[in-house]
Amino acid sequence: MTDREWLAEAFEQHRARLQGVAYRMLSSMSEAEDAVQESWMRLDRADADSVDDLGAWLTVVVARVCLDMLRARRSRREFDPGGVSLPEPIVVTDPDDGPEEAAELADSVGLALLVVLDSLTPAERLAFVLHDMFAVSYEEIAGIVDRSPAAARQLASRARRRVQGEAPKPDADLRLQRKLVDAFLAAARGGDFEGLLAVLDPDVVFRADVGKLAPRFRTKLHGAEAVARELIERGAPFAPLATPAIVNGAAGAVVRVAGRPFSVVSFTVARRRIVEIDIVVDPEKLRALSVQG
Questions:
Q1: Residue 83 burial (10 A CB sphere; 0-12, 13-18, 19+)
Q2: What was the pLDDT predicted at 98?
Q3: Longest distance between any two alpha carbons in the chain, whole Å
Q4: Which of 25, 200, 254, 261 could bridge to 224 as Cys pair (CB 3.0-4.6 Å)?
Q5: pLDDT tens per residue across span 99-139
Q6: Which residues are paired to 205 by β-bridges?
Q7: At what angle do helices 149-166 and 138-145 cross, to 10 degrees?
Q8: What SS3 class is residue 260?
Q9: What is the average per-residue pLDDT within 61-89?
């Protein structure tokens, strides 16, 4: 085995962790894969013999790459704010996977959390993701964001307060989630307004990412009655086309038109009610869709 082959094999042992960091930083599997590939190229150019802890070194590298990508993205959005932009979902189309797959899904980051992470500054997001999700020290984070460890701690603390205040804590029982989502879909198919109200939280939030398409839905709604009315008026033709799926580790659905994904629907269930509905219709995100199963 050559030195480069050995290095490539060592890199592969860390790929899953690097993708986990990058997806939580970028909310996009396609961009996360680009960031991981860039970290490999930087490793390939580096003096690997001088690296004491390859996993830690690669985590820092991929975090730097993601930080640069987030800053560039933020700059673009200042000139083109657009409408609602949702994370690129990870979809498993078989909801009856075995225990091993279910355990893996349980570690997925929910779409509702990613929506909140998308609202943070790049530095806040990096500090929170690295420290709270991957146990990276504030000293290491400080070096990435060019601030003191105390400032890195403050960044993570601000992000943590935002997450705790805005990201709903979902019910962990996947069977309960599926039961509520199935009831939601049945009510939507039947145009059952009261049935929808029975499963929606009074303060439910509805978001639709339509990309550059002319929206079939209003892109953001709040409140059970407004959401139920919009779904019955505009969503009824699509409800019969929805099939169960697991979206970012939670019960969801995929709507297919002519056999191709038209939208992915993510539900956040908390307090035994649906508290958030996120619909990704953007063709660009559906083309890059990460589907398993």
A1: middle
A2: 45
A3: 67
A4: 200
A5: 444 445 445 689 999 999 999 999 999 999 999 999 999 99
A6: 222, 276
A7: 100
A8: strand
A9: 81
pTM of the model: 0.86
3-state secondary structure (DSSP) of residue 42: helix
Write out the DSSP string of 174-192.
HHHHHHHHHHHHHHHHHT-
How much of the chain is helix, strand and coil, in % rounded to 5?
Answer: 55, 20, 25
Size of the chain in residues: 293
Instruction: Report the C-alpha gap between 19 and 30 in whole angstroms.
Output: 10
In whole angstroms, give the CA distance from residue 22 to residue 36. 7
What confidence tier does 79 reach under pLDDT thresholds 50, 70, 90?
Answer: very low
Residue linked to tokens 């909310």: 27
Pairing type for strands 250-257 and 242-247 reads antiparallel
Do 62 and 117 touch, CB atoms closer than 8 A? Answer: no
Domains along the sequence of the chain with CATH: 3-83+115-166 (1.20.140.160), 174-292 (3.10.450.50)
| pLDDT for residue 103 | 42
